[in-house]
Amino acid sequence: MNGELRRLGRRLARVLLSALAFLYLLIDLLVLSLLRPFRRWLRRLRLTQQLQVWVERLNRYVVLLLLLIPWAILEPIKPVSVLLYVHHHRWLATWLIVGSEVIKLTLFEQVFTMAKPKLLSFGWFAWGYRHWEETIAYLKAIPLYQQIVAFGRRLKTGIRLRK
Predict the structure, then answer these.
(1) HEC profile for 68-97?
(2) How would you classify residue 142: left for phi > 0, otherwise alpha for psi between -120 and 50, otherwise beta?
(3) Domain boundaries of the chain, sorted by first residue
(4) pLDDT digits (tens, 9 = 90+) for 77-99
């Protein structure tokens, strides 16, 4: 009985990890891939480069607070979107949530990229970030994830060839 529970637990863990890999892939391929050209353009802006220099001069605690600003400003939009959705403003609610998430992800990523060296000076942050990277590497090693990435590449190549 104990061995059966262990096997069931392993199967369940594999299914959950596969689902996580799939969700990570969807987010990465659909959202972040669409934002990459914009993020590259944003990094080349003089204002962004000046911001980078400014962030490098800041205290690590201020940098940690700075990282939370995009989240703190844009996260409250979610309940507003839900309220709009409940009041039958579905398109507005959808666009509001999608737009705010895109902006939040873009700003958070930009600030995180600038602040990462300072943030890694916190032992707890370095530990968490290392484990995050290990988890992502593990998920990317799952065959289902690799198959979906290969499918996405084939699809992308097919779209390019048609143009």
Answers:
(1) HHHHHHHCCHHHHHHHHHHCCCHHHHHHHH
(2) beta
(3) 1-37+122-158, 45-113
(4) 888 888 888 888 889 988 888 88
